[in-house]
Amino acid sequence: MLVNMNKRLTFLSVGGEVASLIKVRSWHGHPLGAPQDWSQSLKTALQIIWASPSPSFICWGSDQFLFYNDAFASLLGAAHPEALAQSAEQSLGGMWPDLAPALEQVVDRGEAARLTTTIPCASGRQSAQGALTLTPLADDQGQSSAVLCTVLDTQPEQSNAEESGDLQSLQHKLLELTLQEQPLNLVVNELMRAVRTFIGHGSPCSILLADKEGRKLFHGAAIGLPEAYTNAIDGVGIGPKDGSCGTAAYRKAPVVVGDIAKDSLWADYRDAALAHGLRACWSHPIVGTGGTVLGTFAIYRHRPGLPTARQEDFLDLVARITALILERYSAQEELNGQKRLLQTLNRTGAGVAAELDQDVLVQMVTDAGVELTGAKFGAFFYNVTDAAGESYMLYTLSGVDKSAFSNFPMPRNTGVFAPTFAGDGIVRSEDITADSRYGQNAPFRGMPDGHLPVRSYLAAPVVSRSGEVLGGLFFGHDKTGQFSVHHEKLMDGLAGQASIALDNARLYRSAQSEIEVRRRAEEELIQIKSDLELAQERVELALEAGAIVGTWIWDIRSDLVTADDQFARAFGLPVDRCREGMPFDDVAGSIHPEDWDGVKSRFEAAVQTGGTYRAEYRSKHADGCYRWVEASGYCEHDSEGRAIRFPGVLMNIEQRRQIESDLKRREADLALLLDATADGFYAVDKKGYTTRCNAAFLRMLGFEKTDDVIGKQLHDIIHHSYADGSHYPHEDCPIYQVASSGEMAHVDDEVFFRTDGTPFPVEYWVRPVVWQGELQGAVCNVVDISERKRAEDAQKLLMRELNHRVKNLFSITAGMIKMTARHVDSVEEMSSSLTGRVLALARAHELISTSIASHQNHEAPSSLEKLIEVVMEPHVEGRPGVLELAGPPVELGPTSTTGFALILHELATNAAKYGALSVAPGKLCITWDLVGDLLTLDWQETGGPELTGPPVQNGFGSQLARLSATGQLGGGIEHVWHPSGVEVHLTAARDRLIH
């Protein structure tokens, strides 16, 4: 943490005395906070003015805090250092009346300006008329909120006036360029054009940039130099004898060569320079705040010669400002890189969470890994199980075509790969060819011929929640040292996301398999039923079926049942008796007691009416076990309608019943799985008819049972629209489109409607259902994002309210200080009075803390009168008779206490700022009464400043008060603007007071 803080304070290392004062000063309680937490825009602006020799200062933010450099500090004289970071209005004295409107104009227009005004001088000199250049500055959000001011010479010598003015104008131009939010190459080129204007159009100049290792300089920008020359010196080394630029970067000090033809530093580059008429080179190193060499800035001359002292100072200034430019853009590039990483992680996380296709999923993860690590190529090797239960490995590639790997076998558990496939952890190597584990397995030569060139190596195992290794992520680069510890952490998180997503994909495939098993079993049942019906109509064919237990004939008149040998053996009955016939009750004794009543009722019905008979029941077999059988028969009647004969066949349906039981169990498991998810789930066929849904979907839409949904058209049960409430045609519905086209869809900006008509925002994913290559329909996962939306809206409201309250507290405190100062005779008396009022204000503020905090203030009063007294105490303390209260006792609950506290606090704040409480003669009368179902409260101000009418617009506080009155209190609020003072009428529902 200390290292991070020191890093955030490095901008103070180049600011001289002023920066030192900022570093040691206590910033506790200052609105800007500690320097390490200041915005990047402010830090950059300070570095710029500290790099300038011209007196410069900044008026920062809406409060116009004053910051300046050492040159301007000498002009402030005795006002320094107290003026630092204080209000510019208080610190700039005589120049403020001219400066204030100019600052406002520059901020509003966003354009630079020039101002002639009185410039303060150091102690012992009189102030003089001088010129200021004013430039708008942008904050981190790109909004103009500050102004940079540079002081031109107030009384220049006549002989040097024009030269000094040109120098200061150019310095100011360089400062403006540094703050422009443009591409780096444009800013640098503009910088060099401005410098060349100052040095002379006949003097070429260039900027060379150091590489990451600090070993070489490469072309950054040039003006006036031939392309052949810039190509010749591109990549010049950083060393003790590498021309002016390479040597300056090596020494970290300026190197001035007056005659290239004679200087030994140019031995290796002399011919290239002289060939293009370059005779002198003055080079300054560009050094960052941490002492790192960022590059060099060089001026060339076509004649031998040395720079003047003025030119030396100027080139030093240019080098320092160029360093600021490069560091600023480097920091911005690093921030942009982190932003891209976060965007990639968020996009990948959302993608893998929604993706159920394993092949698409692993490709998505591999592509994301390459993007996050900067690898040249990446691979994801993963295990899959086929329909036969056999496991094998597949892979996907990113960064290269699959043909680059098609000729090589799958990786083996070598010393390099084994830790990943065993799930032991992440493997990272700066140079895998130098790793001790590399090349230790036969044929002991490392990568085979033609393999992708891998030097930097990073691999992470993908392990499921059950501990099973699902596969591994592998990334490579043809250069060494490309992967860091940060990349390890990124891949660890990505592997975790991948494992969860793969587990989800497996669950989805398992559910799909269960559905398929159920479908096949249903088809089998239909076929069995068809076979049984055929057996009933054609007994001869049924007797040939292997599932026949036996046949029987019941002679109803003699009450004898005859059966075949197969029937007798199956139930352990004597074969002879079955052939000769035995009473019906003896045969029926094998039926399970629990099933007998049902079988008997069907027999009796068939005997009574004649015709077909069918019954399923458990029957005791010869081995003593009960098995399911199906009895089918036909009761014959004579011409008089009397039952005479009842033939039938007995089928063994034990296997079919077992299948049905298994189907029911699997269906229950699948339903339990779907109902256990918090997201809504439902499926439709190609025509949009609903085929399945889970309990979360029914609750979300307000349905009571699945029968209200299954088999109905999508738009008959889900009425949805765009986020703005506008409906679209059925043919534009993403769910219909996926069900009919087979594409996928993700929507996060729509609104669904419940059965009671209430809307709610949703996010949903739609995927096609394909069986045997044919599109069957679509499945949809729906998430109710109402809480997310409400949380976002609540956060915005709370932030606005907090900002409003803090501003009001500062205004009230300032007013109390002024009012207290008018009525005291000593500092001690003022301290005592002011302390009491501030503490009373704090107690009143506790009453409204529940509107911006997550817990209830248990110390809030329970009566309306006590609430009014506490809220008003900071504003009337020490002013007897200014407040008059009248009304019956009224008890308040926690919610109504908060509502009244917010409204009364707002009215009191406005009265203290603009109304009766802002002046000594002012008075306030508050009365209330209970009338029927309402509480009425009247607020009457008198003796305050004369009012000309209502305010031009209502602020946030007034809006909040109205919302509290109508929302929390169930009433209303009305203002009447009399010239003598405002009158407010507040009502609240009586039944809301106890809440």
Fourth-tier CATH superfamily name of the largest domain: Histidine kinase-like ATPase, C-terminal domain
Q: What's the Cα radius of gyration?
A: 44 Å
For the sheet with most strands, the description reads: 6 strands, antiparallel
Which architecture name of the largest domain does CATH use? 2-Layer Sandwich
Question: Could you please say which CATH topology of the largest domain applies here?
Answer: Heat Shock Protein 90
Q: Order of strands side by side in the largest beta sheet?
A: 8-7-6-11-10-9
CATH class of the largest domain: Alpha Beta
Number of strands: 33
Give the overall shape, derived from the CA principal axes: flat
Q: Assign a percent range to the helix content.
A: 40-55%
Distance between the termini: 47 Å
How many structural domains are formed by the residues? Answer: 6
The amount of beta strand, in percent, is 15-25%
Low-pLDDT windows of residues: 155-164, 539-543, 854-860
Sheet/helix structural class: alpha+beta
Which whole number gives the mean pLDDT?
79
The number of helical segments is 29
